[in-house]
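Table S2 (continued). Query chain:
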Amino acid sequence: MQKSIIFINLGNFGSTGKILRGIGELAEKNEYISYYVYPGGKNNYPKGKQDIVLCSEFTKKINQKLSYITGFNGCFSIITTYRLLHKLDKIKPSIIHLHNLHNSYINLPILFRYLSKHKTPVIWTLHDCWAFTGQCPHFTLERCDKWKTGCHDCPQYTNYPESIVDRTKIMWKLKKSWFTSVHNMTIVTPSQWLAGLVKQSYLKDYPLKTINNGIDLSVFKPTSSDFRERFGLNKKYIVLGVAFGWGKRKGLDVFIDLANKLDKSYQIVLVGTDDEIDKLLPNNILSIHRTHNQTELAEIYSAADVFVNPTREEVLGLVNIESLACGTPVITFNTGGSPECIDENTGSVIDCDDIDAMQREIIRICENKPFSSESCLKRAEKFDMSEKFKEYVRLYEDITHST
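Corresponding output:
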């Protein structure tokens, strides 16, 4: 009998889209058929013959609007979800691999009722904390631990996936009921930090495995360029920051403070900015809105003396690993899974919001060069994307052989 995997994700784009495509392509080399389920809308990958588009972008937006008005996230998409389950009955998958389920593109109670009644093994890769909260995907900045016993009076209910009414008390109870009903499910997290939170949540009784996200080491590697010459930085220490969605969560304010503290021998370079972010930046920060491709980004990582990641909420921090793969050491706050990317030979971990300590460490690393490029490259090898995909395929084999 042909083995098959159903991947379900909120979109056919971005980092999670790339991850599940990579896993699926490798699984197919191991005699699986991979099916990809996602709603209509933004796409980074062409639609294949085994893609199942759950609903149109218009339908998805209607469901999101209903969620926004009512606060009941994931309680709509009824007809499209039943259509999907009808297709699953025909496919009879060996494994159902869930990824991001938030933002109201699929009906959660219907889906999990189906999963609880069928014997098909389920793997759920958590890319954030949403699966065990009443609504939010992150809560570190708010220093909130209501999720442990029951969400209520949420300070973030107007944030993604936003709503105009706080339903977190009832949604936490509903999600607990739905998500703990599956008898044969394994939880996967990209970091030990997130695994530690799962162990404190209502998902704690499920088998739990950590498989780090990985990067493409054929792209992220020491790459020469004229970056320093182009911007007149040959005689300066380059302090690099890379993010997509700059703000307090990513530590934009930290770079603004550092720009006022570091002398003129240092140049802060931020990648992933936009016109609105530029309005907040002092003149001595070099702002690069976007790179044309990942190779250009690797050139910038390679040109830097140190990569600084003052993130306050991070499940793992692939930008840290990308920097290491280009031979550049990393400084990060002790938040989320970000410290797991580095070791004592490749960078430094600073207490969150200790900007003076971060400044001192920037100066030490740039001027004393305590971390070698070779050590950074060796560390990055632990996050080889192809090896991480293999870990998933081995997990599939272990699960299918045990059922």
